[in-house]
Amino acid sequence: MLDILAFGAHPDDTELGCSGTLATLVNQGVKVGVIDLTRGEMGSRGSAELRLKEAQAASDILGLHIRKTWDFRILNWKTIEIINYLLSK
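Structure (tokenized):
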């Protein structure tokens, strides 16, 4: 079981937004995971495959306990409602 689960819209969002906090928590013994809601396929630099490799490398460096990448193609309010529903279960 995780203590903290961080969500990012794309691979690398959590690293850019809160990697220092995540690394500090891991170093304190907190079990931390990350969920990327999309594969980042609409990004302008590199490919989705490259982003996934970079995300895994970042996960290893940060010491994350788990990282999952979901494959929501369109991130809109309906998607967010589905995510909220899934998290409430």
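The CA atoms of residues 39 and 48 lie 6 Å apart. Strands lie at 4-8, 32-36, 66-69.
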